[in-house]
Amino acid sequence: MTADQLAILIPTRNRPAILRRTLEELLGGGFGGHPLLIYDDASADGKAVAEVAALWPESRLIRSETRAGQARGRNVLMRESPCEFALFLDDDSWPESHAAIINALEVARADALTVASFHYRALADGRLSLPPEQARTRAKCFLGGASLFHVPTVLSVGGYRECFIYGYEEPELSLRLWLAGHRIEYLPGIAVVHNQFYTPDENRDYREYDYLYAQNSILMSSLNMPCWYGLPHGLIRSVRRSVYLRRNFWAKVRGTFSGVWLSFALWRERKPCSIRKAIEWSRPSRKSSG
Questions:
Q1: Residues 10-40: pLDDT tens digits?
Q2: What is the DSSP letter of 49?
Q3: Which terminus of the chain faces fewer neighbouring Cβ atoms within 10 Å, N or C?
Q4: In the structure, how many helices (H) and strands (E) does the chain have?
């Protein structure tokens, strides 16, 4: 398996120092022979991002002059990927083992997997996203920053919904892949380090964050399920999350109303599944890798 059979795709925004640490870890871990594409979602200091990208031999930086969101950025990266398979990472994550990723690539190719998802291991405390004993399993979701994609298959269902910006974009894409019969699997023994921490440099707007999650939790169901079932199902999810996270009350209220309005404004983009499939997906006992 040669390096040019796997591209590394990373979206970023306003975090050149964090991105630098990620690229240094990847280069030190033996990933430098792979094509790297970085999508800069209109960072305030585009020059700083370009300087970091230059650390990687023959990397390609795709910059948007206007902010479009992580969902669109990932679609752009997939469309521009030079390889059939791509390792999607966040700008604060890197795999622990190059050999393990190459092995995952071989498994994904041999078993016709659309998405292979891995453990996240928090750098701060070593916490894993799934129990360490979790065996290989079919899954209905993946981790956006710790997954291997078969790019043509993911694009065949439309990729990410760009209207989501960010927030529930991975579960929504997972749902459409699952409905189309494509295989998402969790592969054990592969960990991606998650260097997640919050500083002023991250520039996270929690009002926007809570607004989008309230909105998109509705759209995930209303755009993919029969409206009479999907809309109330999404509303329940949105309200439950809003009650659980007690902050930015009015932002979440606005996001909830936006989700209901967009459910009808985007009516032509709906691809409702059968009620049987909707109920099967909605079962709380379903296994998931993300």
A1: 999 999 999 999 999 999 999 999 999 999 9
A2: H
A3: N
A4: 10, 9
Chain Cα centroid distance, residue 228: 28
Q: What values do phi and psi take at 74, rounded to 5? A: -65, -35
Judged against a pLDDT cut of 70, whether residue 123 lies above it is answered with yes
Strands 36-41 and 6-12 come out as: parallel
Please report the DSSP string for 13-47 in residue order: SS-HHHHHHHHHHHHHTT-TTS-EEEEEES-S-HH
Instruction: Give burial (CB, 10 Å; 0-12/13-18/19+) of 225.
Output: buried
Q: Which of 25, 89, 257, 281 is nearest to 172 (CA)?
A: 281
- Work out the average pLDDT over 84-98: 97
Comparing C-alpha atoms, which of 193, 56, 58 is closest to residue 125? 193
Enter the pTM of the model.
Answer: 0.94
The residue to which tokens 């109920």 are assigned: 279
Provide the H-helix boundaries in 94-248: 98-110, 151-156, 169-179, 206-222, 227-244
What is the pLDDT of the chain when averaged over all its residues? Answer: 93
Q: Which domains does the chain have, with CATH numbers?
A: 3-200 (3.90.550.10), 205-282 (no CATH)
